[in-house]
Amino acid sequence: MASKFSKVLKLYGYDLLLGSIAAFYVFMAPYTKVEESFNVQAMHDILYHRQHLDKYDHLEFPGVVPRTFIGAFLVAILASPVVFVISLLQLPKIYSLIAVRLVLGGIILLTLRFFRIQVRKKFGSQVEAFFVILSSLQFHLLFYCSRPLPNVLALGLVNIGYANLIKGNFYLSLNSLIFATLVFRCDILLLLVPLGVELLLTKSISLLQAIKYCLGTALVCIVITILVDSIMWRRSLWPEFEVFWFNSVLNRSSEWGTQPIHWYFTSALPRALLVVYPLSVLGVLLDRRILFYVIPVYSFILLYSKLPHKELRFIIGSVPIFNLAAAVAASRIYNNRKKSFWKVLFLIMAGSFFVSLGCSGLTFLASYQNYHSGYALKYLHEGGHLTKGIEQQWVHIDTFSAMNGISRFCEDENLLRYSKEEGIHIEDFRSRNFTYLVSEHAAVDGYKCLFSVKGFSRISLRNSFPPITLIIEPKVFVHGNLNYPDIVDKSWRGCS
């Protein structure tokens, strides 16, 4: 028995470690934000509305640009047996959200396992071990891997592309990135092109063979996404082409904020990579083989830096290669730790590991407090049971609340009915017969504030211990209609 356990641990120990951390993040922060809204609502509708397209959320709230349903279909199909049991047991739908997020996280970690195995074959088991350690110390990679973002769905294919690149299957690598580009994220083109150019310049591939192997894949991907998504969106479209046109040709992504050209290198990467950032640079210097893999990634980030609207999730696909470069450096430092100069580096590296762990813990605590609306609706469900004289209780969820933790998975139709109607002025709520409001406003005429939910506001430095603290403030307020005394006179959590 002990030998069997040891064998399983040897084969899957790293997967259990990474999977446990990712699952911990899912259970501790199960709710989703506006960036994830299309895919999470699509997964809900596929699981609960199935062929009844008229009930799908995206037809009422289509978003700025259309996205593909292909990823949502894959995750929903794999999660459907678990969701069926959850429905059979009449458990809250939030458990279904946890199920689909665990499935998505499992898919991404499986692709990361494929990449990690190629790392072991190419660079050795010690580099693989450090790759896992460094990935575990980071927050963003394992936190994001279960989040239903188009970037994360593309990350799975990017991982497969990296693995085939290390393995020497260059055409398969390109095909993986083509799939990711044409179906999930058109911006992966900024990684695909530098990689293709590098492979051509190093004579790893020929142009004619590349066209032969990749053109067919591209056509198949385009046909599949047009067929599937035209049915789901009820109009002829290729989602990622419309996204490309909106972001790159019209350059309208800047309407959601802009960052300076250096932001990815001076803010996003240091926060995402932590100790990996300096180690990855050292890895390039210590092992020339790494240069082949990092050049396309650096080119990807440089090209992306030209676009004014920037977010960390846009470059999440670069993290595995940075982790590889850092793992090579960490392995070299560890092997030479008994030599005087290397011993100093080893001590600095070991200390940096603990600093990275502390930073990841702090980031997790901030993120845990960042889904206030989801908790607000949960607390309302716990206290907002049917009241005498009210045939149906209606909850209005304002735009801010819908963006910060609430999805269809959070709803409970046995208790309440829900409205996300937009464009209602705050003074007009008095004339509307909503039973409850989940709102960003602390006071609404005609309603009493029943309770509020605090959320992360900022990090504060102070002279006492601990030197860093999180400032949390009331973010979302739940109000009850004054026309229903049974509700407003009830004992609630209170507002602050």
Task: Describe this structure as you would to a colleague.
By secondary structure, this protein is α/β, with parallel strands linked by helices. The protein contains 20 helices and 5 strands. The protein has helices at 2-28, 37-48, 57-60, 70-88, 94-123, 125-137, 140-144, 150-167, 170-184, 189-201, 207-233, 239-249, 263-273, 276-286, 289-304, 319-335, 340-368, 372-383, 399-403, 485-488; strands at 394-397, 417-419, 436-439, 447-461, 468-481. The protein has a 5-stranded mixed β-sheet with strand order 2-1-3-5-4. The radius of gyration is 25 Å and the shape is globular.
Which keywords apply here?
single chain, 496 residues, alpha/beta, 5-stranded mixed β-sheet, 5 strands, 60% helix, globular, GPI_mannosylTrfase, dol-P-Man:Man(7)GlcNAc(2)-PP-Dol alpha-1,6-mannosyltransferase activity, transferase, Mannosyltransferase
Please give the radius of gyration in angstroms.
25 Å
**Helical coverage, percent range:** 55-70%
**From the helix content, strand content and strand pairing, which structural class follows?**
alpha/beta
End-to-end CA span? 56 Å
How large a portion of the residues is in β-strands, by DSSP E?
5-15%
Largest sheet: 5 strands, mixed
Q: Which stretches are low in confidence, meaning pLDDT under 50 for 5 or more residues running?
A: none
How would you spell out the order of helices and strands? HHHHHHHHHHHHHHHHHHEHEEEEH
Tell me which oligomeric state these chains represent: single chain
The average pLDDT is 91
The number of helical segments is 20
Shape: globular
The number of distinct β-strands equals: 5
Strand order of the largest sheet: 2-1-3-5-4
